[in-house]
Amino acid sequence: MRFDKVIHAIDLHAGGEPGRVIVGGVLDVPGASMFEKMRYFETKADDLRLRMLREPRGYPASNCNLILPPTHPDADAGFIIMEQVEYPPMSGTNTMCVATALIESGMVEVTEPITTLNLESPAGLIKVTAEVRDGKANSITFENVPAFAVHLDATIEVPEFGPVVVDVAWGGMFYVITETEPLGLMLTPDRAGELARAGEMIKAAAREQLSCQHPENPAVSDITIGVLSGPATNPKATLKNAAVVSTGSLDW
User: Would you please indicate which residues are annotated as catalytic (active-site) residues?
Assistant: First the structure.
């Protein structure tokens, strides 16, 4: 049997969130930075994202990452993140999956018990520290790009909820963050559908009513992920959060 296109990928997860990592079969693309390479795929080669994330190869919770040669002189590897509705400049769980794939597939030099990597994301350089034993990455930590707030205690109007107080912050993506208690929501698994709907509504309203732009990269200027925050149920935690990641357009 002859195949016109063969892509080599590893399926992983970080904390239960799936993150497919493409390790072969896709050539490098033009771009002086990883952000420019991301935009190339977004505007000229989006068929790769669709093939990886849509059925039969993907499903609504799927994420995919593509390892590419870095453009930064200090980076060991570069990567681009592909999600259901966007190409985020940075994602924590996807970074963990990429680092694990690089280490466990032998694509980078591994030192036990600690391996350090510099990974070039579209948002910038990410320093990764991995605890490795017998070639297996047992723990991944990373130092993200600098985070900052764009809006604090801003009030937006959300259908069905009325005035809602939110924060907007950057941490590789622009997040809109909302407390659940004033909305009468509970962060429990049995309320997942309700939380997802509320999060999407708040995110859509925030995008319409609040402006944001990255000071060093004006091309990044949209709120793309929501976080619902409430009281912790684990005594070791300060807060409990639920991230709301879009799988399509909100149907009001």
Answer: 91
